[in-house]
Specification:
Alpha-Beta Plaits; 4-stranded antiparallel beta sheet; binds inosine-5'-diphosphate; binds magnesium ion
């Protein structure tokens, strides 16, 4: 019982995007390092450039928000890096490392406090909860691109 519960906790996954401003500022390695140093594992990774239509599919939940158009322009302005991270409580831990949506309100030492430029141009995305993580991971990656977090390669 304890064993199977632990298995489920360890299996949690989150979708992270290193947004166009961070890629432009040469921060891909710096952002990934912060997750790795916290013990989270990269279980998939790729670089791509969203069209406006693809951004709008990814951020469909925000289609009625006043910032949707600005968000669509920003997220399609250059290449991004998409990652699947695995680890215990990875969703919560990732959001903590990223910090609040508005970089000026984000805790000191978070990625957005250190590198974000504005409430729109805020360097990194991290899934908000398990349901969003599943939807976002399926949108960005096919099943065979994602490593098995419980396989021996991730044991330290
Ligand atoms: P999150 O990225 O912290 O989860 P969400 O509310 O899901 O924040 O918004 C998605 C993205 O939309 C943000 O990361 C940011 O780029 C942009 N955004 C959110 N709120 C605003 C706003 O009030 N004004 C402008 N852009 C915003
Ligand atoms: Mg969000």
């Amino acid at each position: 019982m304890i064993g199977s519960r632990r298995y489920l906790l360890e299996m949690e996954r989150s979708l992270v995007l290193i947004k166009p401003d961070a890629v432009r500022k040469n921060l891909i390695g710096e952002v990934i390092k912060r997750f790795e140093e916290d013990g989270l594992r990269v279980i998939s990774l790729k670089m791509l450039w969203f069209s406006r239509k693809e951004v709008q599919m990814f951020y469909k939940e925000h289609e009625d928000k006043p910032f949707y158009d600005a968000l669509s322009n920003y997220m399609s302005s250059g290449p991004i890096v998409a990652l699947v991270l695995g680890g215990e409580n990875v969703i919560k831990r990732t959001r903590e490392l990223i910090g609040a949506t508005d970089p000026s309100a984000a805790d000191k030492g978070t990625i957005r406090a250190d590198f974000g430029e504005s409430i729109t141009v805020n360097s990194v995305h991290g899934s908000a909860n398990r349901e969003s993580a599943d939807t976002e991971i399926s949108f960005m990656f096919s099943q065979i691109e994602i490593m098995d977090f419980n396989s021996g390669i991730y044991r330290r």
